Amino acid sequence: MKKSFLFVIFLTVFTGHVLAQTSICGSPSSIENIKTAISEQAETKTLTKLEAIFSNKKLILAGEAHYHTHTSYLKNLISYFAQLKGEKGCIAFEFAKRDASFSEFISKVSEAIKAIKAEIESGNLDQDTTIQYTEALESFNQIYNYYSPLNQAAVSNSLNTYTVDHKDHDFDGEASYSDRNKAMAANLEELITTKKCSSVLYFVGKAHLSTSLGTTDKIQDYLSPSLLSQAITLNVQMTREATLPFAGRSWAGCKPPSPSKPVIFKSEIIEEEVSIMPFLNEAMPQWIDYDFTYLLPNS
Fold first, then answer.
1. Could you give the CA distance from residue 20 to residue 168 in angstroms, rounded to a whole number?
2. 56: exposed, middle or buried (C-beta count within 10 Å: 0-12, 13-18, 19+)?
3. How much of the chain is in helix, strand and coil states, percent to nearest 5?
4. What distances in angstroms separate CA 14 from CA 4, 11, 104, 107, 166, one per listed residue?
C-alpha cells in the first residue's frame, strides 16, 4: 500500500529530530553562584530582568531541548517577548523554511496525524507497516504536543511565526549541520533585514549554538557582524529534565537549586567546565557557550 505524500514528508522531518538528553554537574562554587542569582531575583519581576537584557537586541537565539523543556515556561517567554517587542516581533522555529506560516505547518501536522491513525485503524496494513506507522504516529504526536502550544502562544500574542531551517532538511538527503547553520543564519537575517520582523526569538536545539557536541560550527558563525552585535544566545535550562531517560543523573547528585520562578543570569558566573546537555560518553555544550541562562523551575 502506498504511503501518502504527506506521510513521507513528515516522517523524514520528525524522525530527524534528535532527542536531547540533559544532565548537569556543577562544582560547589558554581552552585553557590546560581543560588546567589536566584536569591537576588527573588523580588524582581521576570519581565523587568528580561527587558534590561532584550531591549536593544534584534535576535534572541534560545537554545532548548526539543520536546523536553516544559512548554508552559517557553509560552511565558513568548508572552514576555511580545510585551517587550510588540507585534513586529516574530517567533521562529527549527523546521524547514516554507512560504506558509508555522500555524499552517502545525495544521498539516494535525492532518497527518489523522491520516496515519485512519490507515492504522483501517486494518489494511501488514504487521511491519503497522509498526512503522505506529512509530511515526508517536513522533508526530510528540511534535504536535510540544510545538502546538508554542504556536498558540505566538498567535495569541499577535506575533508572526516562521520556519527557518534548511529547505532540504525535510527529506532523506537532509542537509549537513554546517549547511543547516548557514541556512538558519541567512533566513533569520532575511527576516530582520527585509523588515518582516523588528526582532526574532528563535527556539533552536542547543547543538546549533555550541560546538562542544562535536560539531564544527554554529549559527552565530554565519551571522553578519552587524546582526551578531545585536544578538544574544540564551540557554533555556531546567535543573532536571524529568521526561528524559537517565533523568536521575541530572546534575550528577550535585543537589542544584531549583528556582520557584524562572531566573536569568549571565552564564559566565558558572565555571566553564560545567556541562549542560551531554549525550552520554560524548562531548557536551557548556554554560559559557551562551550569553545568558534562563533557568526554569522543575515543576
1. 22
2. exposed
3. 45, 15, 40
4. 16, 6, 16, 15, 14
| CA dihedral (287, 285, 211, 202) positive or negative | negative
Return the C-alpha cell found at 122. 483501517
Q: Which residues have CB under 8 Å from 257's CB, separation 6+?
A: 31, 34, 35, 38, 239
- pTM of the predicted model as reported, rounded to 2 decimal places: 0.83
Give residue-wise pLDDT tens across range 131-168: 999 999 998 999 999 999 999 999 999 999 999 999 88
Instruction: Delimit the domains of the chain by residue range.
Output: 16-102+161-296
Per-residue pLDDT tens over the stretch 211-259: 766 678 999 999 999 999 999 999 888 765 544 444 434 444 455 677 8
